[in-house]
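Hey all, sorry for the wall of text incoming. These are the two entities for the joint prediction.
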Amino acid sequence: MTGFLSILRRELRIALRRKGDVLNVLVFFVVIASLFPLGVGPEPNQLRAMAAGVAWIAALLAALLSLPRLFAADYADGTLEQMLVSPQPLAAVVLAKILAHWLLTGLPLVLVAPLIGLQYGMPAGAFGVLLAALLVGTPVLSLIGAAGSALTLGVRGGGALLGLLVLPLLVPVLVFGAGAVSAAMSGLDPSAHISLLGAFLAVSSLIGPWAACAALRVALD
Amino acid sequence: MLETTALACERGGLRLFSDLGFAVAPGGLLRVRGANGSGKTTLLRTLAGLTRPSEGVVRWRGQPIADDYRKEMLFLGHAPAMKDELTVLENLEFSAQLAGLENPDCKNALERLGVARLADLPARFLSQGQRRRAALARLALSAGVLLWLLDEPFAALDAEGITQVSALCTAHLAGGGMLVLTSHQDVAIASAAPQEIELR
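and here's what came out:
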């Protein structure tokens, strides 16, 4: 547990001293979401119908931008090696990295998402659902993404490979995340969609860290 | 306490060494020699449990190495494991926490490696040698860690640094510790039971 906390504290401290990395992801998220109206035209009804899907696609792309860095710096400077030979369980190390990643990329996206809702003229009732869906769904991006990031460690052009590897696995998050908001907007109960997102979160919190641990051991062999 | 039997390793299909057997007892020093690419680093990583040997086993206290082993072992590789954004002291404190050391006196450790005045400097301003010294300050904290595995500890150090590190190693061995190191330099380290292996 002390290992978990000290890794988490260290990650947050480093991020505080390199604010650019966190801001990049956020700005990217907002820019992607702002491009859609420019491309498809300013028809309000059409935009409103697209809002949830756009927010989720932008969140996926923004997460993908940050994921290659998840383990790469620690791999390059030998910290990862020290983590593996330390008495700390590797699962605790990986979970601390994943939690830090979510706090630094997922959570800010959730907080900025209302901006996109406003931009697309989303009805007030759907705001809460969008936030709830993002709150449950974005940790899945960090969990599954960590496995992808560990698998592509040290591979040239790993970023592109990471996308090919991780995006298909994240399709359910996109479907149910956007589905929850669409349901709320057409007056239906979104709780089934949110529950499915929750189930996906539960499964990925078992599989993601486990796969990441195995991949890290192979990468450092 | 540390033993290997019939150890063999290969990297990328190339056999580096095979049928390697040795034992290191408390107070024992094992120097690993060999040309570039002869497998010194691979051997140390195998002893640290990072690389899986293609044949043979590494034993600690008579058992194949497992999770408990990592509490009694310190491995320092080529990479200094320091983050540019953190200060020298923060880096050392983190590695001490990661190693599960209790009440580490990090300031004193930096002092003993002659880098105490750099303690509050972000690591990105350090020279290669200073970085190395700051990383080796882990040794001054790890007197209680039984086995040290050091990969080229003297690389990039000046004469004074080499003296400081070799003094730490000598004290560790005198206190009943064990040391396996790779080095191209002949640095004097006093040991009750010195051994040498040459990889080719």
